């Protein structure tokens, strides 16, 4: 399964501190045929703020797309901004440059910043 719309609004923490992912309306499941009334790809992309670059190049999402979204969410939680300054889009992706987490907080270990940048 690839969630395809992972963002802070779709993550909840319950009273026990357990993280729960909600809203599976745009989830793609391997081997399951598309339902005829699903959201069109372009409409979906307009709503995804943590979309992996492959969504903007016409490719389908994968488990790596979910890891990318988690890295972006982590970056935003730590730095209070997005890793590329704004959400990626088809136009913006070609010129996007990663902004080091260490610019916002020099106490972040270099290995953490490198791991987030890699994704």
Helix tally equals: 4
CATH superfamily: Transferase(Phosphotransferase) domain 1
- Tell me the distance between the termini: 18 Å
CATH level-3 fold name: Transferase(Phosphotransferase), domain 1
Mean pLDDT: 75
As residue ranges, the low-confidence spans are 36-43
- Strand % is 5-15%
- For the record, the CATH class is Mainly Alpha
Q: Please bin the fraction of helical residues.
A: 25-40%
Number of strands: 2
The secondary-structure element order is EEHHHH
Rounded Rg:
15 Å
List keywords for this structure.
119 residues; mainly alpha; two-stranded antiparallel sheet; 4 helices; 31% helix
Question: How does this model look, in words?
Answer:
- With 119 residues, the protein is mainly alpha-helical.
- 31% of the residues lie in helices and 5% in strands.
- It has a single domain, classed as Transferase(Phosphotransferase) domain 1 (Transferase(Phosphotransferase), domain 1, Orthogonal Bundle), CATH 1.10.510.
- It has helices spanning 41-47, 63-79, 101-104, 110-118; strands spanning 11-13, 19-21.
- A two-stranded antiparallel ribbon has the order 1-2.
- Strand 1 (11-13) and strand 2 form a beta hairpin.
Strand and helix layout:
Blueprint: E1 11-13, E2 19-21, H1 41-47, H2 63-79, H3 101-104, H4 110-118
Antiparallel strand pairs: 1-2
Short structural summary:
The protein is mainly alpha-helical and 119 residues long.
